[in-house]
Amino acid sequence: MRFIFNLTRREIRSSWRRLLFFFLCIALGVGSVVALRSLIQNLTQAVGTDARALMTADIEVSSTNDFTPTDVSNIESVITASGIVDNRNEAITTSSMARPSDAANQSVRLVELKGIEPPFPLVGRFELEDGTPFDFSLLADGGAVVARILLEDLKIGVGDRIRIGEGEFQIRGVFDQEPGGTSGFRLGARVFIEKKAFDDAGITRNASRVRRRILYRTTDNPTELVRKLRETLKGTTINVQSYRETQENLGEQFARTENYLSLTGLLILVLGGIGVWNVARAFVEQKRRTVAVLKCLGASGGRIITVYLLQILTLGLVGSIFGVLFAQLALWVVRWRFVETLPENMAYSVNPSTVSQGMILGVMISLLFSALPLLQIRNIKPKLLLRDENNTSIRRLDLTKWLFGAVSLLGLLGLAVWQAGSLRIGAFFLGGLAASSGVLYVTALILTKILSRLRSFGPFALGQAINSLYRPGNQTRTILLAVGLGAFVVLAVQSLQSNLVREFDFTRNQRLPSLFFVDIQKSQIENLAQLIDTRIGEKAEAIPTVRARISHVNGEPFDFASRETRQQQGQIGREFAVTYRPNLDSNEAVISGVWWPADPGDVPEVSVEEEMAKRLNVGPGDSLTFDISGRKISVRVSNIRKLDLRNTRTAFVFVFRPGVLEKAPQTFAATILRRVGATDRQRLQREVLDAYPNVQIFDVADIVATVQKLVGNFVLAISFVGSFVILSGILIL
Questions:
Q1: Region 88-102: what's the mean pLDDT?
Q2: Tens digit of pLDDT for each residue in 570-583?
Q3: CA nearest neighbour of 52 among 230, 185, 344, 250
Q4: What is the pLDDT of residues 642-658, one digit of tens each?
Q5: Contacts of 280 (CB under 8 A, 6+ apart)
Q6: What residues contact residue 565 under an 8 Å CB cut-off, 6+ apart?
Q7: How do the domains of the chain map onto residue ranges?
């Protein structure tokens, strides 16, 4: 054993420069895994563990409709009986338009309005920009507290007055971070006012995006209380949520993100492993005479393999340690670049658990990818010192080699499953990698066959270069496979980046509206269309919209109390804006069924968007029941539509056949396609709001700017991860 350790030390000391490439491959792979996992775990710790503060309560009871007296009575009776609720408040949120009271200032902005009542917040802290705690008296008698960005957008300051709906509010405070707020996507800046001011200003009178919340703080675990509330409210559209479920949902989402990013890290590590394989193969080839001498001196093949195996393990371990240091450096770069979009309390250090994972992965990849090259040592004979040959005595079927190959594949599968947290995803990952490798290897075979026919053509230098590819012991096909795989991954990452940027380049989409008007009343639509035509010379297209909610699918009631339904509230359980029209839009195509058959029949008909049809598991001939303002309407699915969302002004999931919804409570939407300058857009919005305060206007240019900023950060994040892949590919190349 002493001989093995001494020889290992001498070999490392004499060959470390040649093995530096090996070292870099492992360091880069381990660094990517540790950095990505640590980043997500730190984000989970910063956001997920503070779910109470995110909700600003322990329990939230919410609805997009008014709570009926019966609903409130049922809720409060359960709350009182529980004996664990020590405080409550109510809140209401919607979007609306804000504009300065000063007529000379033409600025207009969409805001996300939140009406609150004391005490607020029930859980967590609310500090203003200057560090002072929020005082509810700031909202009394027409006061408002706003996000800093709104002052910049409207070119106003603290003490100025703004108009929202039919009301006027004085700005008395500014904040940077709201309680329960995140740095995610938001249509407009947050504005806080008194809850009772909503009705006084007529804000909710005709608004379509309104959510009412009752929040409770408890002195004990709220799980049982949440269960009783759901049981009491079963059959209604009221949603009950506890902070514990929010925490679980956040944890699940972060865990999935962590596992998928870990697969990216594993891919980088596998690319590094290919580099390790290349280094190990070249190293064994260079050490053939040294091995032959050692065998002449009595060393067995097993002992020599052990020497080089220890050398590989040592380099893998040291490379993993440097990978951890590299991960810490990467996290510091993330803090420098993304500090404004990440939580304030987020840590930027590597986690001990991810360090352990990275070290294990680094050592395992070193072993798995160097095992087969090291096995070639068995076939090196002492007579090599007398006559150089290329192991012509090697058996055709080497069972040991095949066994180690199978073990290496199983090891890779195990690592993929471990990182993905799923056998299916891990198997797909390895299968995709194997398929790509297979295609590249076949391509390498074809390429070498073609090159072999070119030996006698061209200049002497070219012929000799081609001949060198076919010398005994060459690894041409294998090297082509390694280089091809590295180039494939690098190009895939770069293509993803460029496609993402191109996909969100809204300036190329001429069907995207310039302005989008909603919540227009039937009595207002004609005059509003005339105003728009007068100001910019375009006739706005009026689209009727009705609020509806699914209550039954094929006669079966929609179970709002189930956990699966609650998780899909944003897709199925929510209130939809539906419309009716006789024709398909230009961005739609029927993929199943018939668009409004000639004979309408006795049952009303509806067209369903493709993805929603999959979620509901419905097709032509199936039935849906909608709740529209308390009235149930059963309809037959006439057809399934495919929507091209990149080329649309509006996108409705459900479109009814005319003759069904005309008498239902409805508002209208209108769009303007013509590109209008910023000043003219602001002036038009101001005129519309002065005449029709209830109308909401979405300035698509502003929304696009916000989306593109988010996409820019996303592309930057992909570039950050992709840089690891590209570096790995370059190392292989």
A1: 90
A2: 455 567 889 999 99
A3: 250
A4: 987 666 667 789 999 99
A5: 22, 312, 369, 370, 373, 374
A6: 558, 559, 572, 573
A7: 1-51+253-386+400-421, 52-249, 515-710
